[in-house]
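User: Hi! I'm working on a homework problem where we have to compare a predicted structure to a textbook description. Could you give me the structure for the chain below?
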Amino acid sequence: MEISLLLIAALLYLGLALGFILVVDNLVGLVFRDPRSPLQLPSFDIGRAFAASQKLYRK
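Assistant: Happy to help. Predicted structure tokens:
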């Protein structure tokens, strides 16, 4: 019983640590942006996604 609880706690701790690292990395990337590279905002092409969903729906 104690080992499974310890394993769950360790996995949660690892997940939270990795999530914290990703958040800090993204924040640092926003603040210290390379001035030579153009700003690329993450975009989602809705038209392409809609066409793909229609293609899957027809199958």
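For your comparison, note the following. The two ends are 48 Å apart (CA to CA). The helical segments are 2-31, 46-58. Good luck with the assignment!
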